[in-house]
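Notes, p. 3: input format for complexes.
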Amino acid sequence: MARAPLTEAELIETYGPHLNREPKGGWDRDIQIDKVVDTHCCFCGQQCGIKLKVADNAVVGFEPWYDFPFNEGKLCPKGVKRYLQGSHPDRLLEPLQRTDAGFEPTEWDPALERVVDEIHRIQAAYGKDAFSVISGSSLTTEKTYLMGKFARMAVGTANIDYNGRLCMVSAAGANKKALGMDRASNSWADIPLAEVVFVAGANIAECAPITTDYIWRARDNGAKLIMADPRVTPLARTADCFLGLRPGTDSALMGAILNEMISRDLLDHDFIAEHTIGFEEAAAAVAEMTPKAAQEITGVPASRIEQAAELWGRPKTGVLLHARGIEHHSKGVQNVLSCINIGLAAGRYGKPGCGVMTITGQANGQGGREQGQKADQLPGARDIGNPEHRAVVAERWGCSPEDIPQAGLSYQEQFQAILDGDIKGMLLICTNPMVALPDTNMVKAALEKLEFFVVIDFFLSETAHHADLVLPGSLHEEDEGVVTTAEGRCVKINAAVTPPGNAKRDWEIILELANRLGAQRYFPYEGPEDIFEEIRKVSAGGMADYAGMTWDRITAEHGLFWPCPTEDHPGTPRLYEGGKFAHPDGKARFIPVTYQPAAEQVDVDYPLLLTTGRVISQFLSGTQTRRIGPLVDQYPEPLVEMHPRLAERHGITTGDLVRVRSRRGEMTAPAQVVETIRPDTVFVPYHWANGQQANLLTNPVLDPGSKIPEYKVCAVQIERVTTGGTPQDARDTRLTTG
Ligand SMILES: Nc1nc2c(c(=O)[nH]1)N[C@H]1C(S)=C(S)[C@@H](COP(=O)(O)OP(=O)(O)OC[C@H]3O[C@@H](n4cnc5c(=O)[nH]c(N)nc54)[C@H](O)[C@@H]3O)O[C@H]1N2
Ligand SMILES: Nc1nc2c(c(=O)[nH]1)N[C@H]1C(S)=C(S)[C@@H](COP(=O)(O)OP(=O)(O)OC[C@H]3O[C@@H](n4cnc5c(=O)[nH]c(N)nc54)[C@H](O)[C@@H]3O)O[C@H]1N2
Ligand code: SF4
Ligand SMILES: [Mo]
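Output follows (738 residues plus MGD):
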């Protein structure tokens, strides 16, 4: 593209004085490698196997792990460069406390005492739930279990939630409702067996790169490819049928496909009769949603929708993969249900080459919601409001059911509760709301209102900047435990190095706090394996049943798929075999879906749709990948992607600075004029901070069931802010308008 590269001065302004470009110790080829550790990548939910090379207690490189079956040695750019983060000079090495002069180092003992004192003070003054906990899904399952138990049994608050709330919960809610269980329906081994692959709202090549390989294998076997996205993403360029819909209209599109499948009789009548209930109601709900009607709503030509119905419905096998493009909506659960409906109608469950799978995003996005840190769940994916489920967990924890708080507020709701004065203190680990939550101005106001705020991280994230106390936790390679991949496969993360300086492993910090809060008896662990052994016992008999897994089995078998109820059980890569669903009667539910528009619609003031998402080289809120030089080089700053027709109307060419404004805020970034996006839509990736957060613009409205924010659609206006000038002028404008 014609955009001028950032100058050295601009890079420093954005990324600080240091971008890691080489491993600790430099590129010395004779460096003595002490060991090579089999583990998994720290970033996305694909959880590629990787071998980390360790020298002098530092990760200095990697080797492909060819034997790990999921990725067979393949890695994406982030996995290849991940080893550059640990030795970054910003790594936090001791606790920091805020003073009038900024942060200054402190000792662990007074720091931990202060956390305990503040929890006691706030709870005595305002009640137990006035202190809240927010956690993350990049943590191992052992830590996520610990966080749920810590919040409920040591702090005694109902208000614990996690950042999977911003990610996976619409899919989780829909799968549970329709199929009885919250997990991708199949291992990826079923993808190459499919005759048709339907990808809805997932930028596979950039966000689930290794999944691309599975789709190529299906293509090599002759599979057709359908893609639904407002942007022609890299994989979409190869599709047989591209559905370039208007953001926020997926359930109309899927409704019309179901309507057309019914008209053309592309239904698996036997499957519907034997294994499902509610087809008639679901069919009635889409009776008016003909391809012509859907064309009006989605902007996709009716003939294209008919083609998609034919391609999806006619073959005997097929998989549908979806991600945040359909899930990050105030109707996210409905959107997923509309996909499940076309999956059920075609009988695409429980057999080879079939499945409707959500693509988990975070490293432990799946495991992170199974074992008890989700506001509405207890370990084993049990419902916190269900008296029987509460009784089982209470009995195994050695407490009474009344000791376990009821469901608390979700992530975004907690921020509203701070503004409303109901939450006064917060402990936050492994998430960065100043970049990741919608409506950054609101997030900032909330963080500034807290009476006490403690963050556990290994870098001083944009959120940690607002903390009273920052505790240095552990990097991925400094700790061990299990995570569950997008496939539903539990894999083992192995420690390669020990935490540097005075940093501690996350679980050590939480255990110390639990002890100081007087809850020792609930936390009798020497290390993560003890926590895992407890998870096995507590999850037994629950939906996410880990009882039959051991760390040794997981390692020896290259991962195990839950449910795995006994030690001689092989695990369950493919769910619902023989059409046996997880509801008590064994049947899946068609849930009627009627299209409902997004919360914010375009109007004369805000005439364009904004959608947000990712680029391949950056990860989530960017705290980690914005410190890795070779990744920053690939995509140094957010770009406002727009169609040439839209750009022309505003006199914009690639590289011009563009101000994007919504009802909540504005941000400025260079334009990227591309033909691969709808002319009524602009796209901004969200990995950057300091006034370049896409979330300055987004709408904090939630799906009423899943409580996921509507990241994927809001109304904006755009304006060109420069007509040239020097790069420095452009830069100044950008930094002062954010
Ligand atoms: N490189 C990279 N990879 C990642 C991550 C990362 O930050 N960087 N994050 C990981 C995580 S946690 C997640 S959740 C996943 C996310 O993975 P994806 O969901 O695949 O990524 P997104 O870019 O959020 O959105 C996907 C697509 O949705 C499209 N879209 C936008 N609005 C709509 C709509 O209304 N309908 C439809 N059908 N599509 C729409 C966008 O154009 C985009 O191409 O990626 C994981 N992998
Ligand atoms: N506009 C817009 N916003 C979005 C999205 C979007 O598509 N558009 N996507 C949403 C999605 S799907 C997601 S998943 C969220 C994610 O966004 P966040 O919840 O902010 O997740 P991360 O960026 O991973 O933040 C993790 C923080 O924890 C730290 N960390 C990482 N691993 C560990 C660990 O093991 N221990 C400790 N102690 N700290 C750790 C990192 O340094 C970082 O500061 O963003 C959401 N926000
Ligand atoms: S695809 Fe995901 S897990 Fe694999 S190397 Fe890339 S970021 Fe890491
Ligand atoms: Mo995510």
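Residues 167, 361-362 surround molybdenum atom (ligand 4) (CB under 6 Å).
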